[in-house]
Structures are given as structure tokens and as C-alpha cells.
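User: Sequence recovery, please. Input:
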């Protein structure tokens, strides 16, 4: 690609009329640090402002993970970047909704924690048969309320959303599809062809009609943005507690957390 922007944590490619944003941190199952989100924000602005781009695909490198949320090795009571919790996560989440083009989550493995929230926020989700969805916040001393809870509840229903957040079971791609969290499931080897079929179809549709449709869906659920903002400030206070830090330490030390020793 001519004048391809230099990125370290992601790969940005324009394939036909589709911009692909690939989180390229497979050693940590495509978990994001501050820099990853900065680059994803830049890439979304590039794609959003490129009049030749009809749709945007977000995915992870390799066949293990789409994205597993915040990088726990870059989390010491706060993450390592800018923003309320050391990650411009609210900016990225808002941008996935605001960019006036359909955003497709290409889920090729684990979509866990903040990774599941990103997939939830995308307009469409296509998953490979090996994909797994879930939330782990209460296991690792975190939560992502707002988009992560309320938008999820709109999609899968209130009881199921509570179950996902409270019990933290992993959902298979087929289960996720049965709850409406996923539009389509295909074998891993057919994933790219299926994504390209969608992006080719979207490239034949009127971009202005698609942009208005996206804005209309957003308008109905945009009150959740305020809840997300409030919750991000709440999670900042929570990250400062020994109870939350026990969750992060336990994950990094590969042991079970002992939250009840730290409840204040
Ligand atoms: C994804 C797993 C379920 C996979 O489990 P398993 O198959 O048993 O493999 P593991 O051995 O656990 O993992 C393999 C390998 O990858 C590393 N890794 C995986 N995920 C992460 C991560 N997020 N950060 C850093 N490293 C990661 C793991 O350490 C292993 O490395 P080795 O070198 O091979 O040992 C499982 O891995 C899992 O549950 N991961 C944890 C995911 C996690 O904790 N994510 C953050 C969740 S926070 C949240 O859910 C709510 C909050 C939130 O979304 C949010 C809100 C505001 C700001 C930020 C966030 C945010 O997302 O953090």
C-alpha cells in the first residue's frame, strides 16, 4: 500500500473497499495496551475519512484470539497509556459507533473482557467455529459497564447479560449466535472468504444510506454513552483498591484470586 502508515501494535490494510485493522499482539492473545488503542483510533480515523473505503474490519492476528481486553502485564492499578484508566478505551469504543461506515468484528478466537466489548460494539460480527466469547471482569478485578453491560443486555437480553458478567462462563461461537451476539459462524478456513463476501456486498450499497442507517441505530442506544463514561470513572476508583489489584496480580501470577482478604 502506498504511504502505508507506520504502526507497531496493529496492521492497517485496505483490501478493495474494506479497511482491515488487525491487532497484532498474538503473544498476549491480542490484548491491548495504551499504544494499541492509540493506533486503532488513528486507523479508524483514516478509514472513516477515506471516501474509497466502504466498511471496516476489526480482527486479531493469528488463530487464537480476536482480542482479550486490557494487557494485564501493562496494568499496575492503571494501564500504561492516556485517559481515565490509562487507556483511551472510551474514545475507541465511541469511535467504533461514530465512524459512519459499518464495522465488522472478525472474531477468530477468544473475544474476552474488553475484546468482547469491542465485538459487541461492532455493527456486525462474524466468528470462526473455534471462537469463544465471554467476560472475566469479576475474576480479574475489573468491569466495563455501559456499553459492556447495557448494550450487551439489549443484544442478548438482561438475564443472559448478567449471567455472562457474573458467572464468566465462556460462550462458544454457536451459543453466541443463538443469543444474537454473532451474526454468522463459519469454519476458520472460510472466515476470510465470508468476511470478504460481506465487505464486497457493502461496497455495492449506497454509502450515504448505510451511514444514515448506522446513525439511526446508534441514536436509539446512545444514552448508554453517558453510563459508560460514568462507569469508566468508577472503574478508575476501583483499580486503586487492593481488591481489584488482587485480581490483576492473581492473573499475572497464574493463581486463583483471594478477593475476600481485601474487601474494605
Ligand atoms: C483469554 C483466556 C480465556 C485464554 O485462556 P487460556 O486458553 O487458558 O490461555 P492463557 O494461558 O490464560 O493465555 C495464553 C497467553 O496469553 C496471555 N494473555 C491472555 N490474555 C491476556 C491479557 N488480557 N493480558 C496479558 N496477557 C494475556 C496469558 O498470560 C498467556 O501468556 P503466557 O506467556 O503463555 O503465559 C485467558 O487468558 C484470559 O482470561 N485472559 C484474561 C483476559 C483479561 O483479564 N482481560 C482484561 C479483562 S478486564 C474486563 O474484562 C473488563 C474491563 C474492561 O473491559 C476494561 C474497561 C476499561 C479499561 C480497560 C478494560 C480492559 O479490557 O481491561
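Assistant: Recovered sequence (264 residues):
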Amino acid at each position: 500500500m502506498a504511504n502505508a502508515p507506520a504502526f507497531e501494535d496493529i496492521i492497517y490494510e485496505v483490501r478493495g473497499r474494506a479497511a482491515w485493522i488487525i491487532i497484532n499482539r498474538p503473544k498476549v492473545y491480542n490484548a491491548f495496551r495504551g499504544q494499541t488503542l492509540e493506533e486503532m483510533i488513528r486507523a479508524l480515523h483514516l478509514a472513516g475519512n477515506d471516501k474509497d473505503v466502504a466498511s471496516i474490519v476489526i480482527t486479531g492476528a493469528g488463530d487464537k484470539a480476536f482480542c482479550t481486553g486490557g494487557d494485564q502485564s501493562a496494568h499496575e492499578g492503571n494501564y500504561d497509556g492516556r485517559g481515565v484508566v490509562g487507556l483511551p478505551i472510551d474514545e475507541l469504543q465511541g469511535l467504533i459507533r461514530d465512524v459512519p461506515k459499518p464495522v465488522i468484528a472478525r472474531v477468530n478466537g477468544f473475544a474476552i473482557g474488553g475484546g468482547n466489548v469491542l465485538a459487541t460494539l461492532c455493527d456486525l460480527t462474524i466468528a470462526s467455529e473455534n471462537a469463544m466469547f465471554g467476560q472475566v471482569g469479576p475474576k480479574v478485578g475489573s468491569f466495563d459497564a455501559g456499553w459492556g453491560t447495557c448494550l450487551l443486555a439489549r443484544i442478548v437480553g438482561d438475564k443472559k447479560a448478567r449471567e455472562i458478567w457474573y458467572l464468566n462462563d465462556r460462550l462458544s461461537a454457536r451459543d453466541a449466535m443463538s443469543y444474537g451476539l454473532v451474526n454468522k459462524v463459519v469454519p476458520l478456513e472460510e472466515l476470510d472468504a465470508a468476511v470478504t463476501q460481506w465487505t464486497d456486498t457493502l461496497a455495492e450499497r449506497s454509502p450515504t444510506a448505510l451511514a444514515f442507517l448506522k446513525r439511526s441505530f446508534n441514536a436509539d442506544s446512545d444514552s448508554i454513552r453517558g453510563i459508560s463514561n460514568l462507569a469508566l470513572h468508577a472503574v478508575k476508583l476501583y483499580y486503586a483498591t487492593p481488591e481489584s489489584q488482587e485480581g490483576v496480580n492473581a492473573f499475572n501470577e497464574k493463581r486463583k484470586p483471594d478477593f475476600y482478604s481485601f474487601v474494605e
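The chain has one domain: 10-189+207-217.
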